[in-house]
Each structure stands twice: as C-alpha cells, then as structure tokens.
Amino acid sequence: MDVPQLIRELQQGNQAAFRTLVETYQSRVYNTVLAIVQHPDDAEDVAQEVFVQVFESIGRFGGDQKLTAWIYRIATTKALEAYRKRHARKRLGATPFSFLARLFGTDEADGPDDRLHPADFEHPGVKLEQQERARILFGAISRLPEQQKVAFTLHHVEGLSYQEITEVMQTSLSSVESLLHRAKQNLRKRLAWYYKDEQ
Amino acid sequence: MESNERINSEIDKTLRSLDGLERASPRPFFHTRVQARLEGRRSATAAKNWTFRPAWVVASLGLVFALNVSAVLMYQHQASTYEQQQTTETVADEWGIDPLSLDW
C-alpha cells in the first residue's frame, strides 16, 4: 500500500490501515521517544499517545506535509512534554527550596545536577562495548536545550538526514546545522566537566 | 596538557558511542495496546457526549429550577404560618387571654 492510499484509508477510519501504520512506524516512534524521555515505561505510554493522536487528527492531515515528518513531529512534541512533566515533578520533590532556586536561576544550564538528570539510562540498541560511554552521553543529552536535543536525537539516534530534520522541525537547513553544532559544543562542555571530575 | 588531550580523546570516543545504534522497539502487541487505549478514549468521549446531550441538559436545568421554586414556596409557607401564629399571640396578649385556654 502506498502512502497516499494509506492516508486516504486512515482518513476513512480503516482499522487495517491503522494497524499497518502502527506496525510501520512503531519502532521509529518508540526509539525517538525513548531517547528523549529516557525511561522505558514513559516511552511506551508516550508512543501509544502519539498513535492515538495520529488516529484522531489524521482527518486534518494534508497539504504538502510528509506523513513520516508529521509523525516524528508529534512524537518529539509529546516526548518533550512528558520529559518536562517528569522533570517538573522531580524538581518539585527535590528540596523545599527548589522552587526558589528555579526562580533565581541557580539550578539549570551552568552546572551538572545529577539529582535532576541522573545518568542511568541505558539504550537497549547500543553495542555492548559502548554501553558505559552511551550512558554518560545520554545523561549529557538530557541536559541539552529542547530544540538541540530534538535535532541531535533525530540525527544521531534515528539517523535522519539534515534535510529530513528540517521537515520534522519545520525550519531551515542552516537552523538545523546551527542546532546540531551548538548541541555538540554543549555536549563537549558537559562531557569535559564529567571527565575532569572523574580525574 | 597531556590531561587535556586525554579528556578530548575521551569526549570524542563518547560522542561516537551512538554510532551503529540499533533502533529500540516497543514490547510485543504494541498495536493491541494502542487499540485498547483508543477504545477507552472513545467510550469516555461517548459517555461525555451522552451527558451533554441537549435533552439531558434541559431536563437537568428544569429539575434544578423546580427544586428552587419548591424551596422558595416552602419557605414562604413556613413564614406565613409563623406570622399568623405571632398575630394570634399578640391579640391574645392584648385581650389578656391565655392562648392555651382557647385551645379546646
């Protein structure tokens, strides 16, 4: 079944077409979401929500959009929402003064805070000999600003090209290049902290 | 100097640690769980729609209105009974009659 036909059948509420869609995209969606939320149960929940939203809003899908890019966009948006929610819960539960710390900006961006971003996530698709390094890298990725995190995840975890990322993020090629460049710089900075601390 | 080189080498290796990563997949029967979630969502929406049907809204508002009217009427009835009783007691006082003795 080609994509335009799949879309037409989905818009008619065809259950078999929906099954085809889920089975075609489930790994891409789950893998993307997992890399962002870094928690298998949350990733499962968010991935299900992504397909529910796809089913419910496929009627409004159209124009020049590409189905794959549209699904990736829903997945990254929902994953970031879930990550934010989980992060906010941890933040609120962290210390009685964490709200004040947040207000006065003493908490984010400038220093590693392992209480809020524990580097304990192990991606199941990483090669065995790389697991320890990947665990450290995912800890650093979780601290990236959202847009950089999405661009880096789509490129390095999902293997999307720069052009495909522009379609998902609805931005220009130069913006994607800039996001990925800044993401790498930030990761280098954080990894440098980590390895200096380790010495 | 040597330490910086070592750190840079560690960073480069760590940044390359996702090379050759295989996609993670959800647990088996993912589609069944999505379908179940959709069904749950649909029945919740149907229940919500049923509650907000115009006939039910009108009937509920009518019931609330009727309860309010009956409450006002009951209050008025109680107030007039109390007023009547007060008047009887005042007249009895003025004429020096014990209201209990009239109660035969």
Provide the descriptors you would attach to this structure in a database record:
heterodimer, A: about 200 residues, mainly alpha, Rna Polymerase Sigma Factor, Chain: A, Arc Repressor Mutant, subunit A, about 70% helix, globular, B: about 100 residues, about 75% helix, about 0% strand
Short description:
The complex is a heterodimer of chains A (199) and B (104). Chain A has 199 residues and is an all-alpha fold.
Explained architecture:
Chain A is mainly α and 199 residues long. Chain A is globular and about 60 Å long. Chain A is built from 9 helices and no strands. Chain A folds into 2 domains: 95 residues, Rna Polymerase Sigma Factor, Chain: A, CATH 1.10.1740.10; 83 residues, Arc Repressor Mutant, subunit A (Orthogonal Bundle). Chain B has 104 residues and is mainly alpha-helical. The radius of gyration of chain B is 41 Å and the shape is elongated. Chain B starts with a helix and ends in a 10-residue tail after the last helix. Classes of the chains: A mainly alpha (199), B mainly alpha (104). At the A-B interface, α2, α3, α6 and α9 of A face α1 and α2 of B.
Biggest protein-protein interface? A-B, 39 and 26 residues
In round numbers, the mean pLDDT of chain A is 88
Low-confidence stretches of chain B: none
Helix content of chain A: over 70%
- Helix percent band of chain B: over 70%
List the uncertain runs of chain A.
105-112
* Subunit arrangement of the protein: heterodimer
- Count of folded domains of chain A: 2
Structural class of chain A: mainly alpha
Q: Order of SSEs of chain B, N→C?
A: HHH
Largest sheet of chain A: none
CATH topology of the largest domain in chain A: Rna Polymerase Sigma Factor, Chain: A
Rg of chain B, rounded, reads 41 Å
CATH architecture of the largest domain in chain A: Orthogonal Bundle
The count of helical stretches of chain B stands at 3
Task: State the secondary-structure class of chain B.
Answer: mainly alpha
The tally of strands of chain A reads 0
Largest sheet of chain B: none
Total of helices of chain A: 9
Keywords (chain A): DNA-binding, Sigma factor, Transcription, Transcription regulation
Pfam family, one (chain A): Sigma70_r2
Protein name (chain A): RNA polymerase sigma factor
InterPro entries (chain A): RNA_pol_sigma-70-like, RNA_pol_sigma-70_dom, RNA_pol_sigma70_ECF_CS, RNA_pol_sigma70_r2, RNA_pol_sigma70_r4_t2, RNA_pol_sigma_r2, RNA_pol_sigma_r3/r4-like, WH-like_DNA-bd_sf
